[in-house]
Amino acid sequence: MNDIARNDDSLQRLERLAEISQRLLVRARALGASQAEVTCSEDTGLTVSVRKGEVETVESTRDRGIAVTVYFGRRKGSASTADLQEASLEATVEQACAIARHTEDDPAAGLADAELMAREFPDLDTWHPWHLGPDEAIDLALACEAAGREADPRISNSDGASFGSGESLSVYANSHGFIGCERETQHSLGLALIAGHGEDMQRDGWYSIGLAQADLEPAAAIGRRAAERTVARLQPRSVATGEYPVLFAAEVARSLVGHLLGAVSGSALYRRASFLLDSVGQRLFPEWFAIRERPLMPHGLRSTAFDADGVATRDSALVEDGVLQRYVLGSYSARRLGLQTTGNAGGVHNLEVAANAGSLDELLRGMGRGLLVTELMGQGVNPVTGDYSRGAAGFWVEDGTIAYPVDGLTIAGNLRAMFAAIEAVGSEVDVRSHIRTGPILVGRMTVAGGE
């Protein structure tokens, strides 16, 4: 047994949180609650930041929280505390009950159905503590920044490098007798640099993130890639306004999936604030297009056996053969819509967008002439109409190769039309998110430039 395993008391801490949750549920029932649920969490972390070879911040965190929700029939009350003293826990339950007694009935309120609770809890390989001291974390950040600053003489300044490492323990329990315990780690290292001088300066960077130390790219490699990306943006041009193919690089392509998720989420649907109302069963994408949710994927950034309601998760299609298969629902939003929960209380888990094409270079050759987007700015997306208009920067492509950097552009369209116009999804997946996709090529969008 190594020193890390020997000193790891996470299971004992989880057990303590589980015991607390059980005591709170018993107390809620004694105070008259017909149903109750408790969430207990404990997070620890270390973050450091450096800039121009000097340490800027070192922060060690340790947070915990206890949240109690009780139901008196269809009346709901919630209260929370960070204090584990018995008197504080008792007061928290009492406060939640007092709130519930004074709220209005909500027909959709209540726990998820008991028969939907998770019964199996496989090891999803999400726990990989990295016990670095502050000095070691600082050395990593400094090495990353130094590699970036030294990579190219055109790098003129640094916005700094940062390293973060965190551990999260959580317990969700409810009065159905369900209790689920999870532990997860996450580590990250990134750098932002500035190239050029005066009005010709450009900023870019790179970062790496993962559940385990081994998932991170080496510090020097992150630094060099940050420098390459920054220098590549020097001397940008504009382009003539017109309609062109637009290729979203993988790191920004996932935002398109994010807009889809927002439109098919339960809260947007029951508020009638979505451009995809009543769209299940409709073909929104080309016939080859597919998105699959894989919550039980080992070592996934958002893997879990149960959602925030305790409902068992399962692999399932969100989009198949271009057709929207389902919405994204927790138990509350499902009841509001008269539907069944999809096990997505708290969000989605590990979405994978199926590829139908090869590398980024192959996509560029296939596109021929158009815009490669590597950065998006602004929030110009209307969730009710699907109208899309965002600032963009990236590279102009001629004859299937990158010709020059561009910025100061606006790309516009309508998301429903953009989804239908997707021509390709590349195979080079950006793994730094729970939305895993390669570059996405939209066949035609309006690009507004300065020419």
UniProtKB/TrEMBL annotation:
Residues 128-234 form the Metalloprotease TldD/E central domain. The keyword Ribonucleoprotein does not apply. One of its GO terms (cellular component) is cytosol. Keywords: Hydrolase, Metalloprotease, Protease. One of its GO terms (biological process) is proteolysis. InterPro entries: Metalloprtase-TldD/E_C, Metalloprtase-TldD/E_cen_dom, Metalloprtase-TldD/E_N, PmbA, TldD/PmbA_N, TldD/PmbA_sf. Pfam families: PmbA_TldD_1st (PF01523), PmbA_TldD_2nd (PF19290), PmbA_TldD_3rd (PF19289). Residues 36-100 form the Metalloprotease TldD/E N-terminal domain. GO terms for molecular function: metallopeptidase activity. Belongs to the peptidase U62 family. This is Metalloprotease PmbA. It comes from Pseudoxanthomonas taiwanensis.
